[in-house]
Design goal:
Layout (H helix, E strand, L loop, with lengths): L3 E4 L14 H6 L5 E7 L5 E11 L5 E10 L8 H15 L4 E6 L3 H9 L3 E4 L2 H10 L9 E6 L3
Length: 152
């Protein structure tokens, strides 16, 4: 199935009100946060990806995928992978070399990101402490970090 990819605003997320965590809505429009929506051929929003681009204290730019969601009836149609590809494209065009993702103990989530080019490792404390300084939604439930080099 083909999906259009568009930048979405908080108003566009209305139909997802009960499906997304509050922090995704709160991040919309905040400095450094970008939200991409996948639309079906009838222009219905079927999925959302949010990512963050910011700068660490050392001047290095970083990006991380905050959240990905696809309506159940559209799962398995590559919507999430296409949104992630679009995210990587934006990150690469911004001059950033890698995308990070932080996950908990959810095998399906790890499988999805692994299939899309991420390598996983234990959390690096210095990386997490840097993110505490630049983003609001760092979670204590994170157990692993994944990295995908988008400039290859």
């Amino acid at each position: 199935m083909r999906f259009g990819m568009y930048t979405v605003t908080k108003n566009d997320l209305g139909s997802f009100e009960n499906k997304l965590p509050k922090y995704v809505f709160d991040n919309c429009g905040k400095k450094g946060y970008f939200t991409i929506g996948a639309l079906d051929p009838d222009n219905n929003l079927v999925g959302v990806t949010q990512f963050f681009i910011g700068m660490f204290k050392n001047g290095e730019f970083a990006s991380y995928v905050v959240y990905i969601y696809v309506n159940e009836e559209f799962r398995g149609n590559m919507a999430a992978s296409r949104m992630l590809w679009k995210t990587h494209n934006i990150i690469r065009k911004s001059g950033i070399k890698k995308s990070l993702v932080f996950i908990g103990d959810e095998p399906e989530e790890k499988d999805f990101f692994t299939q899309n080019g991420y390598l996983f490792m234990r959390l690096e404390e210095d990386c997490i402490s840097e993110f505490f300084d630049v983003i609001d939604d760092v979670k204590s439930s994170w157990t692993e970090q994944g990295v995908c080099w988008v400039d290859l």
